[in-house]
Structure formats: structure tokens, C-alpha cells
Amino acid sequence: MSILFSPAKIGTLQLRNRLVMTPMHLGYSPKGEVNDQLIEFYRARARGGVGLIIVGGCGIDRIGNAFGMTQIDDDRYIPGLRQLVDAVHAEGAKIVPQLYQAGRYTHSALTGKPSVAPSPIPSKLTGQTPEELTEEKIKEVIDSFSNAAKRAQTAGFDGVEILASAGYLISQFLSPVTNQRTDRYGGDLEARMTFGLEVAEAIRKAVGPDFPIIVRVAGNDFVPGSNTNTESRAFCQALEKVGVNAINVTGGWHETQVPQITMNVPPGAYAYLAHGIKQVVSIPVIACNRIKTPELAENILEEGLADFIGMARPLLADPELPNKAMNGETDSIRPCIGCNQGCLDNIFRLKPVSCLVNAEVGREFELGPIPQSAQTQKVLVIGAGCAGMEFARVATLRGHKVTIWEESGQPGGQLALAAAPPDRQDFGYLANYLASACQKLGVAIQYNVKATSDMILTAVQKEGYNRVVIATGARPIMPSIKIEEGVRVLQAWDVLLGREKTGQNVIIVGGGAVGVDTALLLAEAGTLNSETLRFLMLQHAETDQELYRLLTQGSKKITVLEMVKGIGRDIGASTRWSMLADLKRHKVSCLDNHTVLEIRADGVLVESTGDSTQKVIPADTVVLAIGSCSQNELYNNLQGKLENLSIIGDAAKPRKVLDAIHEAYAEGIK
Ligand code: SF4
After folding, report:
1. Cα(343) to centroid(ligand 1), Å
2. Does 339 sit in the ligand 1 pocket, CB within 6 Å?
3. Are residues 462 and 506 in the same domain?
4. Are 592 and 649 in a shared domain?
């Protein structure tokens, strides 16, 4: 890690390394003020070794902000902001606020006022039409930016970042899609850049020549008719000329239909956007989006694609990532798995950010370090799924001695199912991390042990276990419908784990996450792999159209049946849309509002919930994905026979991975 952890400068700002915590909306400041939750969150990241923290975003006014946002639009926030700065500085990191104005992405319900934008084009995010900014109002917004920057300087921040990406106000001015003005702020690219450049110039004037200014830009809007890397390069060159000190390059807008940070985006996929900009400016460029490991970060720097690396979610997952990487302990890093379930999905639900893999996120101020137990206990855990292992990890850190009995030959339980579909392998990294963390802490995981009540009672008696925790997970359920001989009926779990093979004409019963995952796995069968695609593309062997067809149309005909309205309703908002798009792309038929009445020799008899019409859909294989039930027999048998017995995870009640991990953490620190 010689480049990543080498000191570097942004303008006059000396940084201890090239790792930047990019801004992330946290929702921790319900009153706009800095509080202990925010301070301790960032203190932990600074202590973890990151070079620069960009606090994102900080509202520069009251017409363009978001829920729970830290505000920097009034002098009364300065003392709190100074406390935050001091906490981060005390840990050796530098800190800048991101100056945030959302324009037409602001929902009027949050501000009590209509949102504003260059032109009154309805927002796809809010469904609302913004008010067009007059030239007088534009001047006011520019003043709000420069006043906020001045406040940042007064509070002791080390610079500021201007938000000019992701479809927020400045990018709305830059784009011909959202800027249809005919005054000096609209028209050709040069005119559309005027607002962003005036913001940068006003800030430079307010803070003086030496205060670092970073601008976050979209490397490509990924919106039809909007700016690409070409326009972004021109904007960045102009920014350099007005005295901006670094460019932070992210991907597309929030409304893009090209996934930006979901699990299916290949790691480092968008580093080329930063490289495009780096080629035309001489100020430092920060590359971001799905750069989740120090090894990948180092590669990007080594290849000269960027000067700094931005990470946000990986530092949520593990604030100690930089220190661990510097100490050569990369295999101890708790991985961000790109699920968005605790972070982005929470923000969409107007809830503060948490993290699926790290139950401490946002709770640093109330939890502190895991406390040592006054008395060491001997604990037996049954099941090495995510709940069992997270419990074991935390209980061991408390000082207990933990043994796990696992029925199968590998750790992770249902994480293996979640990791099975294409582009979902990150769930497997979580299983690996938990197993490796347990192993390093000295948790004894014994595989291929099928626990019975008698075995547990004997072990408690003979080996002196003080506590038994049942984490035996769940099993798939069978429907109570007539199933005729003839058609192959399989459980989705068996298909996902490769234990069973389907025919060519497959019906999946159940359109929840497991059904969608199974459909996507089967839809890949017979499509081009990436190696072949690369070869064919480089040889110009097929047309783009034919390559697309070969990539998306496999050998199987797949139908997903769902009883109620909507497919994939239990998938988080930030991921669901792209999975539904994948189903469409692969021509998977999705039929919601249809109840399965019978599985017949020739297919599935269904009834429409709307008009009660019935029909048989032919199939040679029926895959069941209708849910799971707790595997709690051991717990039920042992109740009343053991003093200190508890049940966690899916064994208590089927739940999402996030809930299983968080509850296991809570049980572990008890
Ligand atoms: Fe990463 Fe998921 Fe945690 Fe978000 S919730 S930081 S995506 S692991």
C-alpha cells in the first residue's frame, strides 16, 4: 500500500494519506445541529486512519436540503461544527464539509417550500415541479454557498467541497435536460457552466486564496441527453481556472437507470471517469464508487487513474479499514457488501443510516468499545450462520469462550443462498469475514456436527457450558396444494446452491427476493460469459445488437408467479429497480396477482386474483420460493431443561440479514 498511504496535498492542505471518506448523507442531525451521534461517528472514522473526511452534505440554505441534514446556513451552527472539527483533528485526520443544495431533488414536504431549479422540469425523484430561479434568486443561492464556506472556515474546517454532481442543483444547471433557460445561465455548455463557476468564484472570494476547495462532479450523468465525461472534462478545466484545488469524481445522477453503487456494479467500474478528468486537469482527482478494498484502491493509484481514492460505505462497514490495511491486516477488514440495506435504503425511508454488517454504525456515541464481562462464560452456539457467528464474535470480544457446532461443512448458513445469483457474491464475503474473525478470536467452530438435545445437555453437564444459544436458522416451506406426479418440483434453496438442476421451462412460485434471485440465476444459463464477450468485442465479431441479445437471452424460459401485487417487494428500494430491470432484460415473465391452485403433470394451474380466471402455464420444472419457517425444534426441546438458553436469528423468526446481525450483536454484548 505504498501509494494509498503516502502523504499528499490538496492545495495547501497536507493529508496523511490518499484515502478520502466521501460525503454520505447520514440523517443524524434532526435539528440541523452537530450532536454526539455525528461527532462520535466521524471520530471513529478519523481514528481508523482515513486522511480526509468530507462531511456530507451540509445544507447551505433551507430550500434545498434533506431530512436530518447537518446545516451550515446560520452562524449559530458554528460552535457545534467546531466541536466536530476538533474531534476529527484530534485523531489526525482533516475534515471539510460538503456544501449541499439539492434543487429539484428537494421534497417540499421537508422544507415547507417549493423546490427551486434552473427550469420548472418535474423531478423524477419527488414527482414535484420546482420553481424556476430568477436571476435575483440565483444571486441569493450563490451568496448562501459563499456564506456557508466562510462559516466552514470560521469553524476550523480544512476546506470545503461544493456538490456539483448526482443531479443536485449545480448539475441541474449544467445539464441541458434540466436547464432550458434562455438567459446567461442557459444555452450551450459554456452558459450552463456559469452558475457552478460563479459559485466556485464566490467561495474563493469569500475564503481567500489558500483555503482548499474541492468540487464533486458527475463523471457522466448517465441520463439520456445529459452530460457525459466530455462535458464534465470541460467543466473541470474551467473549475481549475477559477481556483478549485481538487475534483471528486462520482458517477451518475440519482435518477439514472445505470446502477452506480449496487452489488452488481463491478468494483472500481467507474474509475475510468476519474481518469478521463485527470487527463485534462493538473489538480488532484479523487476516484469513487464501489472502490471497496485497499488493494483495488492501490491498483487505481498505481495505474495512474486518479490521485486520491474516495470511500464512504467501506468506512461505515469498518472504520478501521485504513489502519488495518496499513498494518497488513487486510483480511481482518469487515467488508461493505454493497447491499445498501442499512445505509441508502434507510435514507430512502427517511431513517438514519445504519449498516448491515456493522451494528455499531450511528450508535458509536452510546455503545463505545465492547465492554469486558466481569465473569467469563463458556458458551455453546448451535449454528454458524450470520447470527451465530456475529454473536460468537461479539461474545468473545466481551471475554467469553465460545464454541459453535455447525451441521454443514461450511460457515454462513443462508448467506450462501444470498450469494448464489449473478453479481451477488458480496454476501459470501460477509460469511468469510465472520468465519475468519471468529477463528482469529479463538472461537472453536466445529463443522459437520448435527446437534441433538441430548448432545447439548451432555455437553453442558460434562464441559461446563454456562450458556447455550440456538442459531439454527430456517428451512423453506412447502405449499399446501395438490402436487401431481410428472413435473419436477424443487426448492429454490436447492437450485440456488446448485444441489438441483432445472429443465428448460421453469416456473418459479413466489416473487419475493428469493424468487427473483433464483430467476436471475437461471436466466444467466446459456448467456455469454464476460471473457467471451471481451473476445468477440475486440474482434468486432458480432454487432452490438447481437452481443446484447447473446448476453441477455439464455437457454431457459422462466416465469415468476406472485400471489399479491408487485415482484420483489421485500428487496430494498435502492436495489429493487435494478433487479427488476435485469428480469426484464432477460425476458423473464413476471405474473403477479396470481394464486397457484395446483401443480399438475403438465404445469401450474393459476387463478388471477382480479377476475378469478384460471389457466395452466406449462412447465417442466416448478421451483418453490414461497418463504421459510424457523428451525426451532432444538430450542423448544431444551426449554425448561437449561437455565441459560436463548434463540437468535432466523431460528427465532425468519428475518433479514441486517436484523439477524444486529440482534446477534445485541445478544452478544448482553
Ligand atoms: Fe455497505 Fe450494506 Fe453497510 Fe451500506 S449497509 S455500508 S452497503 S454493508
Report:
1. 6
2. yes
3. no
4. no
The model's pLDDT over 184-230, given as tens digits with 9 standing for 90+, comes to 999 999 999 999 999 999 999 999 999 999 999 999 999 999 999 99
Q: Is 216 in the pocket of ligand 1 (CB under 6 A)?
A: no
Structural domain span for residue 500: 482-626
619 and 662 together in one domain: no
The ligand 1 atom nearest the CA atom of 354: 5
DSSP string, 121-181: PPPTTT--PPEEPPHHHHHHHHHHHHHHHHHHHHHT-S-EEEEE-TTSHHHHHH-TTT---
Of the residues 289, 334, 339, which should be mutated to test ligand 1's pocket, given the most ligand atoms within 8 Å of the CB? 339
In a domain, 644, yes or no: yes
* Secondary structure E strands in 548-657: 557-561, 589-591, 594-600, 603-608, 614-618, 621-624, 628-630, 645-647
Whole-angstrom Cα distance, residue 152 to residue 155? Answer: 5
Q: How far is the CA of 184 from the centre of ligand 1 (A)?
A: 42
Is the C-beta atom of 638 inside 6 A of ligand 1? no
Of 388, 406, 407, nearest to 470 by C-alpha is 388
The CB of 317 under 6 Å from ligand 1? The reply is yes
Q: ipTM value of the model? A: 1.00
Distance 517 CA to ligand 1 centre (A): 19
DSSP letter at 412? B
Cβ of 495 below 6 Å from ligand 1: no
Handedness of CA 312, 264, 507, 588 (dihedral sign): positive
DSSP structural state of residue 466: S
Same domain, 165 and 255: yes
325 Cβ closer than 6 Å to some ligand 1 atom: no
What cell does 452 get?
Answer: 441433538
CA of 665 to the centre of ligand 1 (A): 16
Tell whether the model's pLDDT for residue 169 goes beyond 60.
Answer: yes
Residue 387 Cβ inside 6 Å of ligand 1? The answer reads no
**Residue 276 confidence (pLDDT) above 60:** yes
Mean pLDDT, the chain, whole residue set: 96
Measured from the Cβ of residue 560, the count of other Cβ atoms closer than 10 Å reads: 26
- Calculate mean pLDDT across residues 557-567: 97
- pTM of this prediction? 0.94
